[in-house]
Amino acid sequence: MQKGELLYEGKAKKVYRTDDPDTYLVEFKDDATAFNGQKKGTIRDKGELNNKISTRLFRLLEKEGIATHLVEQISDREMLVKALEIIPVEVVVRNIAAGSLAKRLGLAEGTPVARTVVEYYYKSDELGDPLINDDHIAAMNLAGASEMAAIRKTALAVNDFLRRYMDERNLILVDFKLEFGRHKGRILLGDEISPDTCRFWDKQSREKLDKDRFRRDLGGVEEAYQEIWKRLGEN
Ligand code: C5P
Q1: Contact indicator for 115, 179 with CB cutoff of 8 Å
Q2: Which residue intervals define the domain SAICAR synthetase/ADE2 N-terminal in the entry (predicted)?
Q3: Four-way CATH pick for 85-220: 3.90.1150.10, 3.30.470.20, 3.40.50.410, 3.50.50.60
């Protein structure tokens, strides 16, 4: 598979065309940003770890009947994926109040929510990814109502599976972000699932094992990402 034109460079990934128009190549970088790009840094080996972690989780989700963009991992930092037309909506699923939900609703971090919360954010660096609802999505023609119904259902199914899977590995799945796209008339789960895009806490100590260590200068960032891979790698 030939690496072609660079299509897009994001904060943590680059996406290239390949010689197959239906397949893109994703390269995971060590660069990390937070607070809409205001904080910048690098996390050693993050690209490699997020590639491995995402590949593992996408494979497991495929086994559960959830369609993802994963084709295969082709090197330490590279993954082949189905070429998606990305829907510019970030889908956040929350089991426990943390981050922006804790702040918005005045809840103490760590408060469990009585019902799983699904939120949508409009993917726009310029606007700082504002929180939106189904009406905004329809008003801006970002996705159809049946597409959003399928996305919500899939996001909840991902949560059901991942929450259980992480629990068996002594991890609490606090919240996470998903992205979806269109491919040959189907909606597929895209992007990545990694400590960059999820909050994982150790079940006993409630130690943070995710990007919050970078966001909040807690130290031990690389070690946290390694620990997640270690717990997943042990099946
Ligand atoms: O910051 P906030 O609490 O809204 O984040 C919720 C979840 O979504 C966290 O797991 C965070 O890592 C993830 N997220 C992300 N990309 C963003 C915003 C949030 O992966 N642009």
Answers
A1: no
A2: 6-231
A3: 3.30.470.20
In three-state secondary structure terms, 142 is coil
Dump pLDDT digits (tens) for 30-57: 999 999 889 999 999 999 999 999 999 9
Q: How far is the CA of 7 from the centre of ligand 1 (A)?
A: 24
Verify whether ligand 1 is closer than 6 Å to residue 129 (CB atom): yes
CA distances, 125 to each of 12, 37, 168 (Å): 14, 9, 36
Instruction: Tell me the domain boundaries of the chain.
Output: 3-82, 85-220
Distance 138 CA to ligand 1 centre (A): 23
- Ligand 1 contact, 33 CB (< 6 A): no
Topology match between the domains 3-82 and 85-220: no
Q: Return the CATH fold of 3-82.
A: Phosphorylase Kinase; domain 1 (3.30.200)
Binning pLDDT at 50, 70 and 90, where does residue 235 land? low
What contacts 154, CB < 8 A, 6 or more positions away? Answer: 66, 178, 180, 187, 189
What interface predicted TM-score (ipTM) does this complex get?
Answer: 0.99
Reported as a single tens digit per residue, the pLDDT across 74-122 is 999 999 999 999 999 999 999 999 999 999 999 999 999 999 999 999 9
